[in-house]
Amino acid sequence: MAIQLIDIATPQVGLKGGAEKLNANFTDTENAASRLVQSSPTDATAGKLMAVGAFGLGAANSPDQTGLDVNTISVLGWNYVINPVNGPSVGTTKFFTFPSTVGGGRGSQFAYPVNTDEIWYRTQKSSATWSTWQPVYTGANFIQAQNTSGATINGGATTDGSNLTPAQTGTWRASTTVTNTSWTTWMKQ
After folding, report:
1. Which end of the chain has a smaller Cβ tally under 10 Å, C or N?
2. What is the DSSP string of 64-124?
3. pLDDT tens-digit readout, 81-92
């Protein structure tokens, strides 16, 4: 139903005509005026209107939560978690959760630990059990570089990033066996 407007130029018989229109506006379930707004950025009550910043969407910062078990996140959106339980790493991490639209126990999550270049991903299948966190490989943690360590490095073995050209920080794992001065793909550990 369309929003009912009160014509203030037309005399009303008492308040009945205007009151009926106002009442219609606030009882029509298709009219936003009849809906309640979320009580907090994480209020997931069905039927409530989302406020700007709901679940971290459109907000400068998503709601801070300390010690949240990220296995329990079941609504779409961002969660900014300090010391998450069941996260891919320790420390503050931003999580984006895509819950299932066809029933509980399915979904996916991305995790972005702050102050790092890391991105992690996991899924939840029909068993409702989350998979292990897997790194998402990007130019920050998956590179082509030359072994300049002076030794052969076996595939799967690690070396310090200073032994690579271009030089890297941290520890890197060789994708294949690589002799000195040879190039291969390296994954940050």
Report:
1. N
2. EEES-BGGG--SSEEEEEES-BT-SSSS-EEEEEEE-SSSSS-EEEEEEETTSS--EEEEE
3. 888 999 997 788
